[in-house]
Amino acid sequence: MTTIKLAIGSILIGFAVLGLKAAAYWMTGSVALLSDALESTVNVATAFAALIAIRIAAKPADDAHPYGHHKAEFFSAVLEGIMIIVAAVLIFKQAYHGFVHPTPINAPTAGLIVNMAATVINGLWAWVLITRGRKQKSPALVADGKHLFTDVLTSVGVAVGVVLAVVTGWWILDPALAALVAVHILWSGSKIVKESLSGLMDEAVSEQVLDDIRTVIAAQAEGAIEAHDLRTRHAGIVTFIDFHLVVAGDTTVFEAHEICDRIETALQDLLDDAKVTIHVEPEHKLKETGAIIIE
Question: Name one GO biological process term (predicted).
Answer without folding.
Answer: intracellular zinc ion homeostasis
